[in-house]
Amino acid sequence: MLFSSFFPSLGHYSCRRPSRITCFHLKEDVVPVVKDILIRALESMIHRSVLTPEEADFSAVRSVLVIRQHDMLGDFLLATPVFRALRNRFPGARIGVLVRDYFADTVAGNPFVDEILVLQKGSRRWNPRQMMTLLQQLHKRWDLTVVLNTVSHSLSSDLLAELSGGRLLLGSAHRVLPGASRNFFYNLLAPYSTTTVHQTERNLDIVRYIGAQTGDLTECMYVQDAERRDALETLRQCGMREEMLRIALHVGAGKVANRWPVARFAQLAQLLHDRLGAQIILFWGPNETNLAEEFCRLITFVPVKVNPADLRHLAACFTQCSLLVCNDTGVMHVCAAVGVPLVAVFGPTPPDQWKPIGDSFVAVLGAGGSVHGVEADSVFARVATLLLQSRLNGNSPAMVSSSNQRRSQV
277: domain CATH number? Predict the structure, then answer.
């Protein structure tokens, strides 16, 4: 939100003495009212007529800006096939993507993206040069601006779209801003399907409205050869042996409800070690050292332990593994985006909407929508099936990831 990005101090405020009349929380009570008034005023000022795709002139589109600043990593990576579709629709156009600062690295090296616009989170992270750079990039006057307002819809995204100067502004007709009669910033309103569809399809539906198509629905993140070499060296120093079957386990998740119990991860690791002779490569996230320590106490062998790193190095490390087992979290999407097979444990989130698309990415759903309903034996069976599938496809288990990485760069 623009308010939270530039004015983080608008938190909870209350008077010293409780009073039904004067006591209030600024963020909860006042900001929504002010925002509602602002939205109504903006709608009255912006009289943008809605066009159909047939009425819009796309022949003059030489630049396209995609705005996707939602805070969840998985949501962003699920939207990356949109870049592919837009490149197919506008092969000669300059395509830019506006993202939060902590996701910018996931777009680096993407062949379908020419320019990355970075939005810092919170006023304390801005400096004058960053603000000037963003304003200059926005003021290049993009011909077409696309707002991917699928999971959420923020006023700040629409204001940034307005600042882009786009002659054509495209977004979903869904998730109308509070107080507005429609999503009035856009002159191209993509219809919203009320049927349950995958989130990648939901994002693509917006650009399909203007004829942008792709047959490849996989998430994409491009890791360079030098990054893979650095990752290989990191893993070697941690004790990885390249001749072995290398199975990665990431035991963390930001949402506790999505976190498969560490004891189940340990049971699975023991099965993979004892029955398949696999070398277990252990990953965890920042502030999750306790999970890694608990895991190590519960197994009878020494795993390869890899300390938390930035997203690109983590992705590069995954490319050196045969397969990943993880929770339903952003890490799952990072792994899928570099083409490495995975088995993910799902609980409260429906995998038919959120699992990465592709036969190499398998979800195990817990009974009753709980990760506690998933047993280690069932995950082991899915891992064994994926490894067998790789052998039948002519890949040795240790080379599965490199084969997928080469295919992702074609």
Answer: 3.40.50.2000
Q: Which amino acid is at 66?
A: V
One domain, residues 281 and 402: yes
Q: How far apart are CA 349 and CA 367, in angstroms?
A: 12
d(CA 306, CA 252): 13
Q: What is the DSSP letter of 299?
A: -
pTM, 2 dp: 0.87
Domain count, the chain: 2
- The per-residue pLDDT string of the chain (410 residues; one tens digit each, 9 = 90 and over) reads 444 444 343 333 333 344 444 444 555 656 777 878 888 888 888 878 999 999 999 999 999 999 987 778 999 999 999 999 999 999 999 999 999 988 899 999 999 999 999 988 765 667 788 888 888 888 878 999 999 998 888 888 999 999 999 999 999 999 998 889 899 999 999 999 999 999 999 999 999 999 999 999 999 999 999 999 999 999 999 999 999 999 999 999 999 999 999 999 999 999 999 999 999 999 999 999 999 999 999 999 999 999 999 999 999 999 999 999 999 999 999 999 999 999 999 999 999 999 999 999 999 999 999 999 999 999 999 999 999 987 767 665 454 444 444 434 43
Of the candidates 208, 238, 262, which is a domain's last residue?
208
Report the Cα–Cα distance between both ends of the chain, in Å, rounded.
37
- Residue 43 domain-assigned (yes or no): no
Q: What is the DSSP letter of 66?
A: E
d(CA 171, CA 201): 14
The structure tokens listed for 254 are: 């930001």
d(CA 155, CA 143): 21
The two tokens of residue 379 are 């995950």
Q: Same structural domain for residues 252 and 316?
A: yes
Residue 252 and residue 160 share a domain: no
Burial code (b: 16+ CB inside 10 Å, e: under 16) for 117-142 equals bbbbeeeeebeeeeeeebeebbeeeb
